[in-house]
């Protein structure tokens, strides 16, 4: 896989995981996603495609403000988690 830091070995799993948002006040519908694992990276990122499937509308990326497409409630990003 070609990255900004150069070429790295990564693992691609097609159509292998169900992803849903973990929200305290409501449940969301899971979406089926592909997973790419880069052993050098310890955080999760989502493509714009998956963000759209989940119904996420970005309001202010720098401030971490977003909402779901079917609501007016402004939400804030959760604290980062490291996945080791």
Can you summarize this structure?
This protein is mainly beta.
Mean pLDDT: 92
Could you give the order of the helices and strands?
A: EEEEHEEE
Largest beta sheet: what is the strand line-up?
5-6-7
- Tertiary shape: globular
Can you count the helices? 1
Strand-residue proportion: 35-45%
Number of domains: 1
Measured on Cα atoms, how large is the radius of gyration?
15 Å
Fraction of helical residues: under 10%
Structural class based on helices, strands and sheet pairing: mainly beta
Q: Give start-end ranges of low-pLDDT stretches.
A: none
Distance between the termini: 20 Å
Give a quick account of the main beta sheet: strands, pairing sense, barrel closure. 3 strands, antiparallel
DSSP summary, beta strand count: 7
Description:
The chain is mainly beta. The protein has one domain (11-76). 7% of the residues lie in helices and 37% in strands. It contains one helix and seven strands. The chain has one helix at 48-53, and strands at residues 2-3, 6-7, 11-19, 31-37, 56-60, 65-68, 75-76. It has a three-stranded antiparallel beta sheet. Strand 6 (65-68) and strand 7 form a beta hairpin. The radius of gyration is 15 Å and the shape is globular.
SSE arrangement:
Blueprint: E1 2-3, E2 6-7, E3 11-19, E4 31-37, H1 48-53, E5 56-60, E6 65-68, E7 75-76
Antiparallel strand pairs: 1-2, 3-4, 5-6, 6-7
């Amino acid at each position: 896989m070609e990255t900004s830091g150069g070429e790295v070995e990564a693992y691609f799993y097609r159509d292998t995981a169900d992803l849903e948002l973990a929200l305290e006040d409501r449940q969301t519908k899971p979406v089926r996603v592909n997973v790419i694992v880069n052993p050098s990276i310890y955080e999760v990122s989502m493509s714009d495609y998956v963000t759209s499937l989940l119904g996420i509308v970005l309001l202010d990326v720098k401030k971490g403000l977003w909402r779901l497409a079917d609501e007016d409630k402004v939400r804030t990003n959760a604290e980062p988690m490291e996945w080791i």
